[in-house]
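Q: Given only this backbone (324 positions), what sequence would you predict?
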């Protein structure tokens, strides 16, 4: 489970909830331009765009869950079980393992057009990073300053979709969510009018009834619809910090409270962290389930031409600012 949103309101923001029943030892990782990134099949990148994002605690290769590069291209991988289909490496194809997709694209691409060109002929392979780290079934949302796309590796091959909603959650594949959105065309944030019958004096009995029918459960389709409604009806100031706050509020409405979603294995999903990326200033803001104080790392405050990875531990414990 996860929810991803790209948001435009005077400045460009990209955010996501990562919903998972366990920690993957996540931490903020900065990959500088000169840190050589080696891939299983594709040529290694001796130099590339600098990248900042949330990754697994792996010492030598950044297993990013989401990240932004110095050009402002942002990307996130979201859980896509039973639909994600990876293949064995093929000759005359660009063979990229699923765990390599984010650093491979963000290291080389500055916008969506470049992503489209680089992914032409791609084969997303089924190889694991390590024996104890099997390939995770994922699909990806990629956003630049103007638009978003979805990348899905399914049985029919790798599909790339325009994403005018700039939202992504989980199953089913993206075309389902695109179709389901048509069912929401009657929802509004405005005070509703009586369209049932001119012969009945019907009127709302409370505020917010223009959005009756907007689903409130935690299923991927419902979170997709809810995130889209809140994003497109958002009203906030146009400065960056106000938009950071606004996007976190939208993400909260699609988050998972511990105990509300039980997996088939009997564990509880929860929103392990939420992040908001300022795509113009390249600042990565985040907060965790236990620690809702916003933390931030600035990409351009790092040494861009360094040769080694830089990582930051997450302050996951609650931090309360007592005033007396």
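A: Predicted residues:
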């Amino acid at each position: 489970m996860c929810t991803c949103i790209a948001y435009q309101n005077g400045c460009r923001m990209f955010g996501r909830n990562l919903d998972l029943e366990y920690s993957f030892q996540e931490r903020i990782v900065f990959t500088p331009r000169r840190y050589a990134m080696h891939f299983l099949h594709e040529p290694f990148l001796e130099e590339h765009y600098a990248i900042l994002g949330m990754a697994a605690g792996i010492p030598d290769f950044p297993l990013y869950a989401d990240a932004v590069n110095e050009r402002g291209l942002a990307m996130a991988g979201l859980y896509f079980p039973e639909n994600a289909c990876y293949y064995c490496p093929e000759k005359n194809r660009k063979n990229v393992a699923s765990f390599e997709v984010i650093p491979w694209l963000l290291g080389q691409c500055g916008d969506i057009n470049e992503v489209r060109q680089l992914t032409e002929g791609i084969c997303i392979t089924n190889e694991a990073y390590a024996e104890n780290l099997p390939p995770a079934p994922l699909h990806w949302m990629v956003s630049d300053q103007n638009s978003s796309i979805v990348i899905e590796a399914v049985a029919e091959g790798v599909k790339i979709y325009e994403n005018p909603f700039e939202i992504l959650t989980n199953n089913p594949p993206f075309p389902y969510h695109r179709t389901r959105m048509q069912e929401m065309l009657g929802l509004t944030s405005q005070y509703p009018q009586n369209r049932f019958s001119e012969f009945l004096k019907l009127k709302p009995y409370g505020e917010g009834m223009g959005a009756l029918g907007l689903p409130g459960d935690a299923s991927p389709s419902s979170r997709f619809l809810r995130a889209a409604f809140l994003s497109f009806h958002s009203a906030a100031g146009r400065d960056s910090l106000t938009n950071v706050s606004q996007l976190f509020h939208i993400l909260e409405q699609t988050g998972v409270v511990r105990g509300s979603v039980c997996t088939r294995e009997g564990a509880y999903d929860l929103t392990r962290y939420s992040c908001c990326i300022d795509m113009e200033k390249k600042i990565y803001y985040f907060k965790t389930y236990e620690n809702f104080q916003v933390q931030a790392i600035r990409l351009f405050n790092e040494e861009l031409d360094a040769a080694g990875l830089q990582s930051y531990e997450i302050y996951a414990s609650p931090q309360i600012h007592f005033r007396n």
